[in-house]
Design a protein that fits this description.
Elements (H helix, E strand, L loop, with lengths): L19 E4 L49 E6 L4 E5 L4 H7 L11
Antiparallel strand pairs: 1-2, 2-3
Length: 109
């Protein structure tokens, strides 16, 4: 899942129900766009792509972090088409594992 990629479901070896595809983000840390990056824009790619290096709604959030105005977490669309609310208190290792498509991580409940 990257620019001009041609990924297939078979490329999601961690499983479509264990892989986030789209995450919710507020404009609190900077405005973004759904249609592509703004050429020559500051941190242009971070305005489109999110990174799971901090949990949702982290107090020290960055432009590329997932966030929402919902108390307690943010919504994510998974590769299987389901939507899940991920709480701010999620284990960071599990959260990061959900953000990879072929990392081979085991996600504990």
């Amino acid at each position: 899942m990257h620019h001009n990629s041609r990924l297939r479901f078979a490329d999601i070896t961690d499983g479509t129900s264990n892989t986030m595809m789209v995450g919710e983000r507020t404009s609190d840390f900077g405005f973004s766009t759904w249609v592509g990056s703004v050429a020559e824009g500051e941190e242009a790619i971070a305005r489109i792509l999110g990174i799971a290096d901090h949990p949702p709604n982290d107090d020290h959030g960055h432009l590329d972090d997932f966030s929402s105005r919902h108390p307690g977490g943010a919504n994510f669309l998974y590769c299987d088409g389901s939507v899940h609310f991920i709480p701010e208190v999620i284990d960071l290792t599990s959260y990061r594992a959900l953000a990879t498509r072929s990392g081979g991580e085991v996600i504990s409940n």
